[in-house]
Amino acid sequence: MSRLVYILNGPNLNLLGKRQPEIYGHVTLADVEAECRALASELKLEIKFYQSNREYEVIDWIHAAREDAAGIVINPAAFTHTSLAILDALNTFEGAVIEVHISNVHKREAFRHHSYVSLRADGVIAGCGTQGYALGLRRAGQIIDGKAA
Ligand code: DQA
Question: For residues 10 and 42, what is the distance between their CA atoms, to the nearest angstrom?
Fold first, then answer.
């Protein structure tokens, strides 16, 4: 049984730490990856951690996850609000899906209130800062272990 979780990041998240720090904070994506790797080893999970500014790459990683992964933690960034194609891809994946947003999208502009990805996500974390990734990974692990209450 796979214990692999893909952690996927959409557009502009490569600039985390530099981009609008008043909204997204000062932690970089490399810091987030290091934190997720440490937590994964504690939880005896494996992770693949990716970021892309290209929608098709996110879709291709979801297709790859179909072959070898038990879970996906995804911050689709702006694709959250626009991408039916990412929703369709996630609907082909049978494992746990956790959607993460660093900011509380519901406190922000109305166009951020709708998420295509939430139609598939088993859980959604928003507004917990970059800590949301670790929370999402922990939850994915609990679902994989059949221990999600
Ligand atoms: C985001 C929220 C999105 O609305 C935005 O487009 C992002 C980041 C977040 O993590 O808070 O790029 O997903």
Answer: 26
